[in-house]
Design brief:
Radius of gyration: 20 Å
Strand content: under 5%
Helix content: over 70%
Shape: globular
Distance between the termini: 19 Å
Largest sheet: none
Amino acid sequence: MNFAMRINRRMSVPLVGAFATGMAPGLMAAALPTMAASGRMDVGGKSLAVAMAMYGMVAASLVGGVLADRFGRIRSIRFAAWCVVVSVLVIALSVAGSACLFAGRLMQGFGLGLFMILFPLYLTESLRPERRGGATALYQTFNSLGGIAGAFLGFCVAILLQLNSVAWRLDIGALLPIALVALVGSYGLSEGDCSWRQSSVMPTGRGGRAGASLLLAVLLLSLTSAMGVGSILHYSVLMLSEAGLDGSAANAADVCLRIVGFGAAIASVSIIRQRGHRFVLAAGSAGAAVALVGGAAVFSCLRGGLISSGVTAGVLEAVFVAAFLAAFTLGPGACVWTLAGELLPVNVRAKGMSAAMLGNQVTSSLVATAFLPVAERFGYTAVLLAFAAAASAYFALVVFLFPPFARRDAEAFVEQV
């Protein structure tokens, strides 16, 4: 599949949802410095503002599969879109550091978390196997494009309003029109698109293989978050500022990082078709581990006085972060969600996706909560090395466990549909 693929109603709404899911961290990353400038957001407050969205995603992972099976995929998508719309209004009308803001972030995370379960599930069940891999890469491409849009809007607001108290409200509010498009578009989807209603043509679970596939899906998605991509995207501006980029330069670098991720997402469309899931997962996780070690080395040199904090160090750190995002997007980010859906038999797919999402979001929440306090106590070197260890474990999992379980089940899935 390539970009000439016809984007019909089955693809358009999931792509808008992917755009919104990618845009939200970029907007929050740009908003955090302005919130902190209000004097009501210390390190703990900034961590909590990010982590509350992660906790909302954990809640979504607990109930997402049940909602999808009980009320259907489409009605659950509509409910998720309503949650995102309302949450943006609540956050934008809140005071920095207030309970209302944290509650809004919790609701936003819940809605976006449902997006992350339901849209890949919808794509898995509504598209034919030969289109599914490319559609997944296209989904990730729009997710990356949303990240670019969020970072670019944050950069523009930072230039125009700098630390004005209105700035972060504009950053957050920029998500509202995208969420409204997803909400309106969801009313054009049909439950009949999804093959779960005709489960007789789908493979069902058989004993140990279903259990092994579920375990593999949970491990893959948990380690995906353990690489720290969510925290790096949320704290990218702060991290680059710590490395030596000041003011709008850090925002501009953040935009560049997301453009690199977008380019990797585009490249993944053809690479997945040519080389398959296993290759991109292994290559992406290996590249991510190397880039994270490089980023850790920059902060280690800064701490040891081998280089001085400034533009050179900041740009060097940005290069390693960009390399990490490119490798991650090319591999785990591009195909892990739909792959998980393909691995799971229809009778447990929705709940299995929720279980995998739970592992993903619990890990992501813990990482987001601990990121700044650990970085403040032990330095960014320790944090990035921990992320590199997770990427290495992901690589080992793909190399040693993927062939006997994932490839066999995914191929069986394609043959039976």
